## 1
Amino acid sequence: MDAKTCIQKLQHVGVLAFATVDEHGNPQVRNISAIHYEPDAIYFFTARGKDFCRELLADGHVQILGYTRYKEMIRLSAKAEPVPEEQQRKWMDVIFSEQPYLSNVYPGDTRDIGIVFEIRDGSIEYFNLGVRPIFRENYTIGCGEISPKGYRIGDSCIGCGTCLTHCPQGCIEQGTPYAIQQEHCLHCGACLESCPVSAVERVS
Ligand code: SF4
Ligand code: SF4
């Protein structure tokens, strides 16, 4: 798996959930399909009057989520920027040609109320629940950065093995200290709750 394959999979999903935060700090999520995919970038169309557009212009942070039929969760965390003015028409035409229903929603020149955003920098979380053990990995596009998540076992581990018996995925290796196989970890927290000496820490 890699970032480009994840973007291709998102394209196959077609309709993606785009989440932002409004001016009151409340989460806002909507489905978007007016999207054009490049191997390492995403372009999408919305209307300038929509709250979605206002939230993107104010902050730019957006999280995009797709879920495939194979139980793969793909989450792109990124900053969206308006495409430069001189390129707006070009990308709008590309998106409208790929998504013919848009000409029904915005016929003729009414599409001019639209604005195209681009995403070139971001991080991708890939999480496959359709295999055992489950598999997760992180990738970046452009200048995106990965924020570590999950759990790790510290040096105070006494090697009792309790965490391993509680782990739904059996993804903890024996050793000194024990170690979590991060690519197979659910982030469920059972190891942290079961450890008798509090050797498991949350990573964030
Ligand atoms: S967080 Fe859950 S899945 Fe991950 S190592 Fe701990 S118990 Fe296992
Ligand atoms: S339960 Fe805690 S002390 Fe025991 S093996 Fe796991 S991390 Fe180490």
Note: The first strand starts at residue 16 and ends at 21.
## 2
Amino acid sequence: MNLVDRIDALLPQTQCTRCGYDGCRPYAQALADDLTAINRCPPGGAQGIEALAALLGRALIPLDPDCGSEADAGVAFIDQNACIGCARCLLPCPVDAIIGSQRYLHTVLECDCNGCELCLASCPVDCIVMRPRASGAGAPTAAENRARYERHRTRTQRSAHERAALLAERKRAVPTPDEPRSQ
Ligand code: SF4
Ligand code: SF4
Ligand code: SF4
């Protein structure tokens, strides 16, 4: 395992971007390159800072309040009376915890939601709110978050490639001004 992998293994994998990086892996890379501080991950909290300090041989420092606080992650909740089924919240969710499709009400799978809050800004009618997790239910583990995020990335990359291929095919089918249109 290289250093980036070892750092990444200590991060909670919510992909929330509160550290100021585009997910856990980019933050791990910046830490390995000595470009950032070890105290920028609110979901990892004090325990995470301790683990990073031990691995990287750095001094213990408190969580940077500019990144957020170490509160228990809530879960997203969609107000079914207000949801217009636009599906804009699907893509930003790094773990595909929201189910629904165009013109249908959407809902959050509480057991998969890691509380990253990335869906909130995507909703044009502000009908997603964060709530405390139901008592007794734990947040997903880093391993679960990582596995779901990898599935999400594979799926979204495949969709992007398929879309690009379809567009290229359609462009090829557009006749030039001198060409007759095919029937
Ligand atoms: S979980 Fe921590 S390291 Fe990962 S994106 Fe959020 S703040 Fe950054
Ligand atoms: S439902 Fe919202 S808060 Fe929950 S994991 Fe997905 S984007 Fe994050
Ligand atoms: S973005 Fe908001 S309105 Fe659109 S489907 Fe998601 S929850 Fe419903």
Note: The chain has a mean pLDDT of 92.
